[in-house]
Amino acid sequence: MKRFYIISIICIFFAFNLQGQSDKIESARIAYITQKLDLSPEEAEKFWPLYNEFSKERRSLQQEYLQARKQYNQGQLTEKESKELLQLGLKIKERELQLEKKYAERLNNVISNRQLVALRRAEDDFKRLLLERLKERRENQERFQNRQERKFRDN
Q: 32 burial class (0-12, 13-18, 19+ CB within 10 angstroms)?
């Protein structure tokens, strides 16, 4: 029953307009991961602040690389610039790995190894579900626009 309830909540959140709804998406993500990891209320209370801290630091590293990439003109990179960008990417990946190790240890004080392993899959599954929902929404909008155009042409 608990699983059905949580999945229902997720479906309701996805039913809303996703654009401009980052709070609703975040709430759905929390519900989804909490359910997939089967977190007790006590575990969730300790888990989420740590996980949010980790996510923020991981996003920061990803943004750092994206900003560096923007500085280079992708179509006209010299060999030297390409090498610099590759090296920077590898350094950031190393830092990301160190970050994951650090937080794996900290999170393991709150959740079990089984839950820690399930976390990565839950993150990936949620992203996949979100992308699928966005794709469905885009396809529905395109079908609606096509119908409107046909209706306009027929009149």
A: buried
The distance of Cα 75 from the centroid of its chain, to the nearest Å, equals: 28
Query: What are 53-101's pLDDT values in tens digits?
Result: 999 999 999 999 999 888 876 678 889 988 999 999 999 999 999 999 9
Structure confidence by residue, pLDDT tens digits, 42-65 = 999 999 999 999 999 999 999 999
Spatial contact of 61 and 96, defined as CB atoms under 8 Å apart:
yes
- Give me 28's structure tokens: 């759905």
CA distance 155 to 145: 15
The number of beta carbons lying within 10 Å of the beta carbon of residue 78 is 10
Cα distances (Å, whole numbers) of residue 39 to 45, 90, 105, 142 = 9, 34, 17, 39
The predicted model scores a pTM of 0.73
